[in-house]
C-alpha cells in the first residue's frame, strides 16, 4: 500500500518544467488542433467508418490528458501520448483545404514554427522557458567512481558514481529513515546497507545516526566525516 498503491492514487507529480514554458512550446500545435476541430465539425462530410475513427481518436486524446494529469513526473516528454490524436486531427484539417497552395502554406507554417520555437527555447532565446530542471547538475564533491548513497533528493551525487543499496528514491526512503523507532525500519536499513554497502553515504541531517546506534555491525563499518559517512575500508 505504501510503496505501490498510495503513490499512484494522487495527482502529485515532480514538475521539471513550468506551465508558462509548456504553454509556449505547445501553443502552436494546440492552435492548429483547435482550428482542426472547428473545421472538421463544420465542413467535414464523413462516412460512418470515418466518424468512428474520429470518435476513437477523440477518446484517445481525452485519456491522454488524464494520463498526463496522473503522471508522476511532468515534463515535455509527458505529452508524447497526445501526438497520435494531434496528428490525426491536423491531417484531416489539411485534407479539407481544397487549394493545395494554402494547405502547403499551413504545413510549412506548422513545421517551421514548431522548429523555430523549439530551437530558440533550446538556446535560451525565450526568457520564460528553462530546461534546467531536466538536466542533472554537476556534482560538487570530490568523490568519483565510488559506490554511494544520498539520503536526500539531490541526485547529482550519483552523476560520476555508482548506486549502492536499494534506497535510490528518497520519496520512498524518507519515511523509513525518518522513523528509527520502528523495528521494521531498522531491519530494512540493516538489510539494505549490509547486503549492498555503499562506500560513501551523504547524510546532511545525520538521519543514519539513530540506526547505527541500534546496529553495531554497521556502526563499526562507517565513520562520520562532515556530512558524509565513509566506509572504514575506503577512508583507510
What does this structure look like?
With 236 residues, this protein is an alpha/beta fold. It contains 9 helices and 7 strands. The protein has a 5-stranded mixed sheet. A two-stranded parallel sheet has the order 1-2. A hairpin with a 2-residue loop joins β6 (222-225) and β7 (228-231). α1 crosses α3 and α2 (48-70) runs antiparallel to α3. The longest helix has 25 residues, at 19-43. It is elongated. The model has no long low-confidence stretch (mean pLDDT 84).
Q: What keyword list fits this structure?
A:
two-stranded parallel ribbon; single chain; 9 helices; 52% helix; 236 residues; 5-stranded mixed beta sheet; alpha/beta
Task: Please sum up the structure shown.
This protein has 236 residues and is α/β, with parallel strands linked by helices.
Helix-residue proportion? 40-55%
Order of secondary-structure elements: EHHEHHEEHHEHHEEH
Query: How would the global form be characterised?
Result: elongated
How far the N terminus sits from the C terminus, by CA atoms, comes to: 42 Å
Treating each run of at least 4 consecutive H or I residues as one helix, how many helices?
A: 9
Amino acid at each position: 500500500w505504501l510503496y505501490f498503491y498510495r503513490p499512484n492514487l494522487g495527482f502529485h507529480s515532480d514538475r521539471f518544467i513550468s506551465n508558462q514554458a509548456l504553454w509556449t512550446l505547445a501553443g502552436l500545435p494546440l492552435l492548429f488542433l483547435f482550428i482542426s476541430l472547428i473545421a472538421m465539425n463544420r465542413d467535414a462530410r464523413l462516412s460512418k467508418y470515418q466518424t468512428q475513427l474520429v470518435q476513437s481518436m477523440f477518446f484517445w486524446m481525452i485519456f491522454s490528458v488524464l494520463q498526463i494529469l496522473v503522471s508522476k513526473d511532468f515534463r515535455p516528454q509527458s505529452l508524447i501520448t497526445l501526438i497520435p490524436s494531434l496528428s490525426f486531427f491536423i491531417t484531416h484539417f489539411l485534407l479539407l483545404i481544397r487549394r493545395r497552395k494554402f494547405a502547403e502554406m499551413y504545413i510549412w507554417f506548422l513545421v517551421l514554427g514548431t522548429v523555430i520555437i523549439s530551437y530558440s527555447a533550446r538556446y535560451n532565446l525565450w526568457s520564460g522557458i528553462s530546461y534546467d530542471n531536466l538536466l542533472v547538475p554537476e556534482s560538487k564533491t570530490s568523490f568519483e567512481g565510488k559506490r554511494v548513497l544520498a539520503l536526500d533528493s539531490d541526485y547529482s551525487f550519483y552523476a560520476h558514481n555508482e548506486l549502492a543499496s536499494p534506497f535510490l528514491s528518497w520519496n520512498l526512503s524518507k519515511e523509513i529513515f525518518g522513523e528509527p523507532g520502528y523495528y521494521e525500519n531498522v531491519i530494512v536499513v540493516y538489510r539494505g546497507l549490509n547486503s549492498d554497502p555503499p562506500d560513501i553515504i551523504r547524510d546532511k541531517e545525520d538521519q543514519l545516526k539513530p540506526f547505527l546506534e541500534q546496529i553495531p555491525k554497521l556502526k563499526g563499518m562507517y565513520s562520520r566525516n562532515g556530512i558524509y559517512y565513509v566506509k572504514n575500508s575506503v577512508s583507510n
